[in-house]
């Protein structure tokens, strides 16, 4: 069990109006920064957080707000993807969390703590498709590039927004809060590819209430009065591996679920930095 200060900290977060506070933070982040102040203000924030702006597509003066800075795009050629089109690539710059097989419908959150794929996806039927597959959790710090790209090529047939809490997803919370990711607000995009389905679950967190989708401008999280919603796309939206998919308006966590068994790259140890496009592993053949 956590010590008393940690228990009190977690209990305090559970009573806070985190969704409202996150909306206010998001509003402040979108306030315009006058041109003459962009270099000192936005540049100061970038230095404080350790952002690498040398990879940004635009110069600092082109970003009109703090939010624009966080969802900046990368310059062409800043990232490389695996040569083989069958190898999934990391959808984000981030830090590797838990990884492994999906067995009994369970995913590992932290040592001694699991949660159900059905709770994360808010869909028991969909979750059953991923039994025997693999999962990978990736955490984005504020210094990271904040866009989420398609890890595989395929078709987006459905997306689901599930409102929820906006608890922190830092190390103490992941270690001690039961079912943290299924509790928080999230946006799930399902990509149907040659190697089966891949669910890209963007999990919100405190001050990261707003998640947007590149392929559907109507998909915006942390909206007052929002309810769970599934969008079905007819025709489906074609995406290529590496295409922009979603964006965090601040940093948070992505959970990937693979329908097919994935031999994850052994270098993907917990706590390791990973860059957008880095190979995640290879799919096991159906005869294995």
Strand portion: 25-35%
* Percentage of residues assigned to helices: 10-25%
Quaternary status: single chain
**Net shape:** globular
SS-derived structural category: alpha+beta
Distance between the ends: 40 Å
Helices and strands, in N-to-C order? Answer: HHHHEEEHHEEEHHEEEEEEEEE
Written description of the protein model:
With 288 residues, the protein is α+β, with helices and mostly antiparallel strands. The protein folds into two domains: 4-70, no CATH class; 94-283, no CATH class. 23% of the residues lie in helices and 29% in strands. Strands 10-6-7-8-12-4-1-14 form an eight-stranded antiparallel β-sheet, with no helix packed on it. A three-stranded antiparallel β-sheet has the order 5-11-9, with no helix packed on it. The radius of gyration is 18 Å and the shape is globular. It starts with a helix and ends in a 5-residue tail after the last strand.
In short:
By secondary structure, the protein is an alpha+beta fold.
């Amino acid at each position: 069990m956590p010590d008393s200060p940690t228990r009190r900290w977690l209990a305090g977060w559970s009573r806070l109006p985190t969704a409202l506070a996150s909306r206010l933070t998001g509003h402040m982040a979108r306030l315009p920064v006058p041109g003459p102040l962009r270099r000192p203000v936005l540049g100061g924030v970038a230095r404080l957080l350790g952002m690498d702006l040398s990879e940004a597509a635009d110069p600092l003066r082109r970003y009109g707000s703090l939010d624009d800075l966080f969802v900046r795009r990368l310059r062409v050629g800043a990232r490389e993807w695996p040569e083989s089109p069958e190898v999934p690539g990391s959808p984000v710059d981030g830090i590797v969390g838990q990884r492994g097989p999906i067995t009994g419908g369970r995913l590992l959150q932290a040592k001694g703590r699991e949660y159900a794929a059905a709770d994360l996806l808010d869909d028991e039927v969909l979750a059953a498709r991923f039994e025997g597959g693999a999962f990978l959790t990736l955490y984005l710090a504020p210094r990271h590039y904040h866009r989420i790209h398609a890890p595989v090529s395929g078709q987006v047939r459905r997306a689901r927004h599930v409102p929820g809490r906006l608890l922190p997803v830092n190390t103490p919370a992941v270690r001690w809060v039961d079912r943290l990711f299924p509790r928080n607000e999230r946006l799930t995009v399902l990509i149907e590819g040659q190697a089966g389905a891949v669910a890209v679950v963007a999990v919100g967190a405190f001050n990261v209430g707003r998640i947007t989708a590149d392929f559907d401008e109507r998909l915006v999280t942390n909206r007052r009065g929002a309810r769970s919603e599934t969008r079905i796309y007819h025709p489906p939206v074609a995406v290529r591996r590496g295409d922009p998919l979603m964006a965090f308006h601040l940093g948070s966590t992505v959970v990937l679920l693979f329908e097919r068994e994935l031999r994850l790259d052994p270098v993907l140890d917990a706590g390791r930095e990973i860059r957008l496009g880095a190979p995640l592993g290879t799919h096991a053949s159906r005869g294995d």
